[in-house]
Amino acid sequence: MHPTAPGLLFGVHQGDTITLVIASGHIVITAVLLGAVAGGAAGAEPPVEQWGQPRAGLQLSLTAVGQPALGAKLPVRLAVRNTGTSTVQFSETEPALAWFTVVRSRDEAWLTEKVSLKAVAPNWPARIVGGKGAAVKAFDLAARHVYPYAHSREILKNYLGIKDAKPLPATVGTLGRNLRSGAMVLRCRIVLPRPDDKPLILTSNKFTVDVAPPDLAALAEAERKAYVARLLKRFDRDPWSGQAAHDICVRMGTSVVPYLAEAAFERNRPGHARLWIAAAIADIPCPTSVETMIKLLGERHAGVRHVVAYHGPKQRNAKLDKAILARTLERKDPRMTGLAVVGFLAHQGKVHDSLLAASLDSNDPRVRTVAAEALSQHASVQNVLRITALLKDKHERVRGAAATTLAAMGSKNAKTVHTHRVVGALVQALEAPGETARHRICAALSALSGRNMPYDTNAPEADREKILDAWRQWWKETKHK
Question: What's the CA gap between 189 and 55, in Å, rounded?
Answer without folding.
Answer: 12
